[in-house]
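Repro:
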Amino acid sequence: MPATIQNPSPPRTALQTQTLAKPASATVTAPISDLNLAARQRMLSQRMVMQTLLAAAGDAQQLQAARNTFQLFGDSHARLLGTMSHYDAPSAARLHAVYEGPQGVNATIQAFLELMRSVLDLISQRSPRAQAVLESIVDSTDAVLEALNAATNVFDAVTKAKADLLFKELTGIVSDIHTIAREAKVVSFNAQVMAARAGQQGREFAVVATVLSGISTEIDGLSRKAIDLADRNRQHA
């Protein structure tokens, strides 16, 4: 179905124009996780298509906004491709399987980026060929969203798997700490018994044993809190 590029009716308000025209790069002020970055790509793709349709209708402000979004979308895609080398081998292989290949996410997104680059140039040149490219872009939106959903899902799965692994490792470490604290309590108890038998001469030794017992109790409590915190983080990963 041909894409409609006539001015929409009713006219946009000033607030709507400012919202659509806001440079996408201005919204990024802090580091973003790979998972959130992948999820944001879906929103950026739709924003870019809308801005481009408005630009084709003669809105110069939306043309610049579309170029900004195009740049951010492309940079984000490049970052997601590059980040695979930072994962462990199984996770990297999982990401590579989704992104690469003839039907992979990367091929779909690269084709989409090429169409967007072409249409933005054609709109700038006021070329009548822009209409045909716009129609191709509109026709490809379902495939693009499907690819971006696949990317988000695999990053979500990898993130959760990583969180589970870290939780398992942390549980092992805390378990070791808990064992040491328990053994320290036993040593402290034995020391207190020996100090009591020593009478007056064992008083200072008894003080040290009591302090050791208190420290062991605190370590035990902190280890339990660490496990609870790690478990909550894993569940929300």
